[in-house]
Amino acid sequence: MRSNPRVRRSSSHSGRRSRRAVRAAAAAVVAGALALTACGGDGDKGKGDDDGKGAQNGGAGSVALPELDGATLEVAAVWTGAEQANFKKVLAEFEKRTGAKVTFVPAQDPIINFLGSKIAGGAPPDVALLPQVGAVKQAVDKGWAKPVGPDAQAQLTKNYAQGWQDLGKVGGKQYAVYYKAANKSLVWYNAKVFENAGAKEPGTWKEFLATARTVYDSGVTPVSVGGADGWTLTDWFENVYLSQAGPEKYDRLARHEIKWTDPSVKDALTTLAQLWGDKNLVAGGPDGALQTEFPASVTQTFTGGDQPKAGMVFEGDFVGVNIAETKAKIGTDAKVFPFPAVGDKAPVVSGGDAAVVLKDSKAAQALLTFLASPDAATIQAKLGGYLSPNKNVADSAYPNAVQRAIAKALIAAGDDFRFDMSDQAPQAFGGTPGKGEWKDLQDFLKNPKDVAGAQAKLEADAAAAYKG
């Protein structure tokens, strides 16, 4: 899952979600984390769940889809590896039900640039999955995105909280279906490493640093940071900032109503420097972290027996896909706790990927309808490493207690939540590799002592992007 900002205020006003959600979702995540720690592994299925939800293969409760024999579709997304492979299984089910032929088109970040080149060449994909709120608005502003049809809208109304529907609106009109969500406020850890070190799950930032040092004393480097992918660093910042500065300032910074030279940003960067500036706590030190891509940051935490390269890794629920590649079992070998509270409350930051139609057709709208249904989400939920904002996906669809707890926390947030800050910013600032916030935070990871310099760079890049 990528994190990209958007400067302009979108019609969804996602940056202005109430504080109520942060508290409710945080409480749900904490409760879920406590419950899942005591649970078993992948075979633990929730009892009492309605397996009829998300029925597949045209059974009772399945979404009605048209016959599309002979129709062809191209679907573009930035997903790779297991995430891409699992989504292809969803597309295969759509093919089976409709007779259409669907081709997955691998895209690159920033996806708006990728789509722009495709459109300029006269060969846009029919549907694209956009990983930023801002990208949806940009696609609409450019005249690329087509409105959601009535069948897909009916599925949205039935299956989604209003807040998730609103995120896909521009100018009050529905243009997108949020097929994939993310809880981006989680720290995953190697259970054996914690057991050997005598370490406990922390609840506060101070406790987190103490736990990291306990793990270090046991002979394992505590924290893996995927610094080669700048979007992971924006997620670190957002969690610290939301918890430390609070929801109001988070919303204002997301809209650039507060400058990045504000003292609240200084405080958050100073807090991050307590971790990033200690080479003993970060796998490979800052230089090593900057050469570590996100997938490797996960896999190196769960390979190597009880002597992995790191004991913990921060990122969203989608980490499960990468953990699965290591053969570690979620809930037993790999456990999770909520991002520690830096201020009064633990942060809960959400993200997501939205499906938009670029070439309007019966087949493209049918795919959007399918993606808005519990049927599609249930298929991918069962494969792991995926979280749906669709409230009618059965808990039992998720393959283990950990992922069920995370999914319940997301749904419990209802209409109110804090969306990824960088996803709300202009792409030039929060969504482009090697530029803007991604690059500025990579530079800060390399030199965490230069808080003032990082603030100055962030503000200069933000001002230019928001003005543009």
From TrEMBL:
UniProt keyword annotations, A-Z: Transport
Source taxon at top rank: Bacteria
The name this protein goes by in its record: Sugar ABC transporter substrate-binding protein
Keyword DNA-binding (UniProt): no
Biased composition (Basic and acidic residues): 42-53
Region (Disordered): 1-22, 38-61
Classification of source organism: Bacteria, Bacillati, Actinomycetota, Actinomycetes, Kitasatosporales
InterPro entries per UniProt: Bact_solute-bd_prot1, SBP
Matches recorded under Gene3D superfamilies: Periplasmic binding protein-like II
Pfam families to which the protein is assigned, alphabetical: SBP_bac_8
Keyword rRNA-binding: no
Family stated for the protein in its record: Belongs to the bacterial solute-binding protein 1 family.
